[in-house]
Specification:
The complex is a heterodimer of chains A (349) and B (315). Chain A is α/β, with parallel strands linked by helices and 349 residues long. In chain A, the strands form two sheets. Chain A has a six-stranded parallel sheet with strand order 3-5-6-7-8-9. In chain A, strands 1-2-4 form a three-stranded mixed sheet. The two termini of chain A are 17 Å apart. Chain B is an alpha/beta fold and 315 residues long. Chain B has a domain of 139 residues: Alpha-Beta Barrel (TIM Barrel). Helix content of chain B is 37%, strand content 19%. Chain B has eleven helices and ten strands. In chain B, strands 1-10-9-8-7-6-4 form a seven-stranded parallel sheet. In chain B, strands 2-3-5 form a three-stranded mixed sheet. In chain B, helix 4 packs across helix 5, helix 5 runs parallel beside helix 7 and helix 9 packs across helix 11. The longest helix of chain B has 21 residues. Chain B is globular, with a radius of gyration of 19 Å. Chain B starts with a strand and ends with a helix. Classes of the chains: A alpha/beta (349), B alpha/beta (315). At the A-B interface, strand 1, strand 2 and helix 6 of A face helix 1, strand 2, strand 3, helix 9 and helix 10 of B.
């Protein structure tokens, strides 16, 4: 099997029609038919762009989605949007408040998956569908409904109980039916995005409970994506996510001279965890483009710490939506070339 | 008679929706910096209006231009550079980690342009322990907690330069004191605050903790050379006999993890219990973690609890 297969991880920017035409020309491909509408055109373009960059596993850059929490909450009965919260600098997300027991209006990724599959950019085994996890959905909303029901809402116990009730309700009544419908439609690989999992390490067990409730008994390869978290604080509780077959973690953002971010993988090894790891080898928050040599160096170090290069995949840290198309192209090409360089390095070793 | 109960937004405000839109548009090249500046000025006027209408006893002006709690210093100090995007404690907000290549050298930042001034002004600054603990310290500081002392020295240089433009009140955010307590580094934290005390002469100072139980750290906090110690009412368990030795107390009473406004009567019961234990000369009431974890309108609605709570307590 080829070492270090490459994959994307999530969202891309929303390309303008002009950008789509210009980039299609640059890639030597006919631009998608605008008659399909901007969302469809973007989706088709993103798939072509990622494949042209040379990635093995792709999706459509979440072209059909506004944002990873807002998109699901638009389909959740019982939630309403209350305004924007700053994430960092001038980046914000629109935050919902859960004001009644959440239920699903309709599975919110099914049409998108049908479309992506119909494009035929990659075989279905090489399509990885990102789905926001129940824990992150709970964290990125205000839990008004379940909190208001707690007689001891001003005590820690009451707040924790409210949190659990929300996670379980979202997993059972929102995420699970959404994932089940994807599987019914033929999805083989599903990436559950839980970037909020690191926000309350003491609630890792709850996040794992939400994950398991979301995918239990469903037949697909499930992965969990985490980023910008203090991973050692999640161990070993996160390893109880038995239905997860791959960890996709951000590393490159914290891999700086004198600090080997991939060393944490030796802890997975110490716990005897044998799952695949999708290692973030390009930083999505900086414009500087890592050279293939740097990507290769990261993969080789990750291999050494994990103890098994055969379980590594190479990916960006997270979604690339905040970068320009030129930067994205440069980073993805480095990712692909760096993976090839790492393969040659490993062959020589 | 002046109430013993004082109210303030003890951290940065969220940006009003119009400023959210303007800053997004600026990033996307849809408006010019001058247009964004107009939006900033209007947002600052709006925050000032809200703080005035609610009768807050100390006013921050919102600190809406701060990219994060550390960035003015990360950008303005020698020996420090901007590092990777890093999660701010257990929230969905991030800061650029300060990388300290050497003991930071402060004094040239121009802090006056970042903080409010005048009557009732309250500046919210990073505490030196939290700053050092959240930074990537690449040099070898002198002794345990030495980086806190170095950060305090740089902060003190900035405060010295303020001279007559110093705010009436200076509040240092120190969540790390309760999240990852200093332990053996407490002597350095005391030294850090001694250095700051000299630079804060004439201003009322306080240390404000959140994101954890301040109970076990209360004795140490009480002996810092600051006028007030603030902590999270909902997360903190006071030990029997707890004391702040006459310091003023700050209580975080607004929870930004929900948009439901707190019930003043229920909060008053909890506040009175703390009041009875610590018997402070003055009791400040504010948010737990900063209100910028809420959208502007929800934060504004939450803040309305403060005057109602003060009224309830005065009964």
């Amino acid at each position: 099997m080829t070492l270090f297969p490459t994959q994307e991880i999530g969202s891309l920017p929303k390309a303008t029609p002009t950008e789509i035409v210009a980039w299609s020309e640059r890639l030597g491909r006919p631009p998608p038919d605008p008659a399909e509408g901007l969302v469809g055109t973007r989706s088709r373009f993103n798939l072509a762009f990622l494949r042209a960059a040379g990635l093995d596993t792709v999706y459509d850059g979440e072209a059909h989605r506004i944002e990873m929490a807002e998109h699901p909450y638009r389909s959740i009965v019982g939630a309403e949007f209350v305004g924007h919260v700053r994430s960092f600098d001038n980046k914000y997300f629109r935050k919902a408040a859960v004001r009644a027991a959440p239920t699903l209006r309709s599975p919110y990724h099914s049409e998108e998956f049908r479309f992506v599959r119909s494009v035929g950019a990659a075989p279905v085994d090489a399509l990885k569908v990102p789905v926001t996890g129940a824990y992150t959905l709970s964290e990125w909303a205000y839990n008004d409904h379940f909190l208001a029901r707690q007689p001891d809402r001003y005590r820690r116990e009451g707040r924790e109980r409210a949190q659990r009730e929300l996670v379980v309700a979202l997993a059972r009544d929102v995420v699970r039916p959404t994932v089940a419908d994807l599987v019914r439609l033929g999805a083989r690989r599903v990436q559950i995005d839980e970037p909020a999992l690191g926000t309350h390490p003491r609630e890792t067990a709850l996040a794992v409970e939400g994950f398991e409730e979301s995918v239990r008994g469903l037949d697909a390869e499930f992965a969990i994506h985490l980023c910008y978290s203090d991973y050692p604080r999640l161990l070993p509780a996160i390893l109880e996510a038995r239905s997860c077959r791959e960890w996709l973690w951000e590393f490159a953002n914290r891999d700086t001279p004198g600090h080997d971010a991939y060393a944490i993988l030796s802890e997975l090894r110490a716990y005897g965890d044998t799952r695949r790891v999708g290692a973030g080898v390009v930083d999505v928050h900086r414009d500087e483009i890592e050279g293939p040599e740097q990507v290769a160096d990261r993969l080789v170090r990750a291999s050494r710490h994990l103890g098994d290069p055969g379980r590594l995949r190479a990916n960006p840290d997270c979604g690339l939506r905040t970068r320009s198309w030129d930067v994205i192209w440069g980073k993805l090409r480095s990712l692909v070339d760096g993976a090839e360089l790492a393969r040659r390095t490993m062959d020589r070793a | 008679m002046t109430s013993r109960y004082r109210i303030a937004a003890t951290g940065p405000f969220p940006r009003p929706e119009a400023l959210v839109k303007a800053t997004r548009d600026l990033d996307r090249g849809r408006i010019r910096p001058e247009e964004a500046e107009v939006a900033y000025a209007e947002a600052e006027r709006e925050v000032t209006r809200v703080e005035g209408e609610l009768g807050l006893d100390a006013r921050t002006g919102g600190q809406l231009r701060w990219p994060d709690l550390f960035r003015p210093f990360t950008l303005g100090w020698t020996g420090v550079r901007v590092g990777p995007l890093t999660r701010f404690f257990e929230t969905n907000t991030f800061y650029r980690q300060p990388i300290l290549e050497a003991p930071p050298l402060g004094g040239g930042l121009g802090l006056a342009s970042w903080v409010p001034r005048g009557s009732r002004s309250l500046a919210v600054l990073p505490g030196p322990y939290t700053f050092a603990a959240l930074a990537d310290v690449r040099y070898r500081p002198a002794g345990r907690g030495g980086a806190s002392v170095d950060v305090a020295t740089a902060l003190a240089a900035e405060l010295d330069r303020l001279g007559g433009e110093r705010p009436e009140r200076i509040l240092f955010h120190e969540p790390m004191v309760v999240v990852n307590p200093p332990g053996e580094a407490w002597p350095s934290v005391h030294e850090a605050y001694r250095r700051l005390a000299a630079a804060c002469a004439g201003a009322a100072t306080s240390v404000w903790t959140y994101f954890g139980d301040a109970g076990p750290q209360l004795e140490e906090l009480a002996s810092l050379p600051v006028g007030a110690v603030g902590f999270d009412l909902l997360d903190s368990d006071l030990r029997p006999g707890a004391s702040l030795h006459g310091k003023a107390v700050g209580l975080g009473v607004l929870d930004p993890s929900t948009t439901i406004p707190e019930a003043p009567a229920e909060l008053a019961r909890l506040v009175r219990a703390v009041d009875a234990t610590l018997r402070p000369s003055e009791l400040w009431l504010g948010p737990n973690p900063p209100l910028d974890l809420l959208p502007f309108d929800a934060a504004k609605a939450k803040l309305r609890t403060l005057p109602a709570l003060r009224e309830e307590l005065a009964r």
